[in-house]
Amino acid sequence: MKFFAITPDNANIDHLIDLLPELGNRGATHLYIRLFAASRVIRPLIEAVAFAGIVPIVPYVIYKRDMLSCSGVHYKSSEISLLSQRLPASPRVITASSHSSMDARLALQSGASYVYVSPVYAPLSKPGDRRPLISRDELQNLIAVHGERIVLLGGITQERMKKLAEAIIGDFSVAGITLFFGNSVVQ
């Protein structure tokens, strides 16, 4: 099982660097740095994440612009069609977001290493989100074929993660903002 921490929208880079030991203690294997900033601004965070033994991942637009070969790249669900285009520098890992089992399969077939499938539960970091939940049957089918390459996202807590492990046969991975950063907003 892999654990993907996702930075809150308004995260402070210095504070994130200070939190890296705690993220490591919580089991984070990857950190999706969901911040849109200049390379010179986020490079210290990327380097600190890698030094902490966690794989840094940046949004596709940042990766493509700055060719941050020391990081992975993440494609939003609206960017899945771009997965088939070769990047000039090879990313450490490729992740993609999907909101259906069909999109998850397409992303994996197109070269994604891992696919965030969401929402599994109502997202805790997005109150009022009304997107339909991915059914347990769809999750089970995806996990049966792709295992830990399927990353469950949306409303994941420690308790819910345990319930999912009891209900779903097979290895899967998890991702979250609240799971790693708590209910408070990172300043």
Can you give a write-up of this model?
The protein has helices at 13-25, 39-51, 60-66, 101-109, 136-146, 158-167, 178-181; strands at 3-6, 30-32, 55-59, 72-75, 94-98, 114-117, 150-152, 173-176. The chain is α/β, with parallel strands linked by helices. It has one domain (3-181): Aldolase class I (TIM Barrel), CATH 3.20.20. It has an eight-stranded parallel beta barrel with strand order 1-2-3-4-5-6-7-8, surrounded by four helices. The mean pLDDT is 89.
Q: Please describe the biggest sheet, giving its number of strands, its sense, and whether it closes into a barrel.
A: 8 strands, parallel, barrel
Show unreliable segments: none
CATH superfamily: Aldolase class I
- Which structural class fits the helix and strand makeup? alpha/beta
First-residue to last-residue Cα separation: 29 Å
Number of domains: 1
CATH C-level name: Alpha Beta
Order of strands across the widest beta sheet? 1-2-3-4-5-6-7-8
Number of alpha- plus pi-helical segments: 7
Helix content: 25-40%
Tally of DSSP β-strands: 8
CATH topology: TIM Barrel
Instruction: Return the string of H and E elements.
Output: EHEHEHEEHEHEHEH
- Beta-strand residue fraction: 15-25%
